[in-house]
Amino acid sequence: MKRLLVTGGAGFIGSEFVRQGVRKGYGIILADSLTYAGDLLRIKEFEKEISFHKISVTDRDAVEKLFIAEKPDAVVHWAAESHVDRSIMDAGPFIDSNVKGTSIMLDAARRHGVECFVNVSTDEVYGDLDESGSFFETTPLNPSSPYSVSKASADMLGRAFHRTYGLPVITVRPSNNYGQWQYPEKLIPVVVVKALRNESVPVYAQGLNVREWLCVSDCADAVFRILEKGKAGDVYNIGSGEERKNIEVVKEILKILGKPEDLIKFTKDRPGHDFRYSLNSGKLRKELSWSPSTDFGSGLNNTVEWFLSNINWVNAKIAALQEYWSKAYS
Fold it and tell me: Mean pLDDT, the chain, as a whole number?
C-alpha cells in the first residue's frame, strides 16, 4: 500500500497524517476542497512530493476521475465537516459532506479495488457518559448532535460496505485532537487567542464537561499503525487516557500565558452538550502494540508555544472565519 489517497489532507488532522506519510515514504495523493478550514500551508514543506487535487468528496464525477488517474492502493478518509456548533445552526453541510461524501468515496473505492479504506470516525458517535465508565468498540452508537449523527452515519456506511461488498474497511474512532495548525474555532486555540488579546474567554456553562485529549501527532501515528497492521472490518478506538474538564484546560492555558483567570466568562450551555467522553483503547494497545507518546502537559505547552510563534497565521484564519460566519449565517 504505497500510494495513499488522503481526503481532507489540508485540514488540521489530515495534514499531520500527510506530513508523517511523506516522511514514511508513502506516495501521497491529497484530495481537499479547501473549504474555510483547509490550508495548503500546512503541508507546504512537502508540496513537491504530493499529488494534490482540489476536489470535493461530494463530487462523484471528480472522485471517479481521481481514482482513474491516480490508482491509489489505499484510502484514508479524513474529509469532514467537524464543528458541532455549526452543525447545530445548520445540519445540511454536515449531511452533505460527511454522509454523502463518505458514500461516494466508498463507492469509488469498491469499484477500483483498493486494498484498504480507513474510515475516520470520532468518539462522539457513542454519545456521552456520566462521571464513570468508558466507551468500547462494541458500545452501541448514540450520537447527540447533528455533527455526531452525520459521523455515525458515515461510520455505519463504512462497516456496511465491508459486510455487504467485502470492501476492506477499517473504522477508527479518535478522541479530541489538539496540536499545531488547529483551526482557531476549537477550544484550545480560541482560549489562546482571546487571552492574548485580553478579551473574555468564553466557557460553556461551568466548564465541567470532560474530554479526552489526544495529541494530533499521536492520532496520525495510530492511524498509520492501523493502516499497516489493522484487520479489515474491525473498529479501533484511539485514545490517550488524558481526560480533563474544559475549565481545567482553560485555566492551564491562562497559566502558561501568564493571564488572569478573571478573563473567563461562563456562557449559556450548548444545546445537547455531551458531558463526558472516555475511550477504552485497550484493543489498539494490545493487538497492535500502540501507545501515545505525548503527555497532555507537555503537549499543551508545545501547542501554545506553536500558536504564539505562528500568530500571524492564526490572526489571518480568524479574519477569514469571521467573514465566513457573516456570509454563511447572516
Answer: 95
Give yes or no for a contact between 29 and 78, defined as CB atoms under 8 angstroms apart: no
How do the domains of the chain map onto residue ranges?
A: 3-185+214-244+275-297
Distance in angstroms (rounded) separating the CA atoms of residues 73 and 317? 34
Write out the DSSP string of 275-304.
Answer: -B--B--HHHHHHS-------HHHHHHHHH
Q: Contact at 8 Å (CB) between 25 and 47? A: no
What CA–CA distances, in Å, run from 177 to 25, 59, 157, 173, 242? 24, 28, 23, 11, 11
Q: How far apart are CA 35 and CA 47, in angstroms?
A: 18
pLDDT digits (tens, 9 = 90+) for 157-208: 999 999 999 999 999 999 999 999 999 989 999 999 999 999 999 999 999 9
Strand partners, 225: none
- CATH code: domain 3-185+214-244+275-297 is 3.40.50.720
Task: Please count the CA atoms within 13 angstroms of the CA of 222 that sit on its side-chain side.
Answer: 33
Which set of grid coordinates corresponds to residue 100? 454523502
DSSP assignment letter at 26: -
Query: Within its chain, how far is the Cα of 126 from the centroid?
Result: 16
Per-residue pLDDT tens digits for 210-222: 999 999 999 999 9
Catalytic residues: 123-124, 147
DSSP letter string, 246-263: HHHHHHHHHHHHT--GGG
CA dihedral of residues 212, 12, 192, 83 (deg, nearest 10): -70
The distance between the two most distant Cα atoms of the chain, rounded to a whole number of Å, is 57
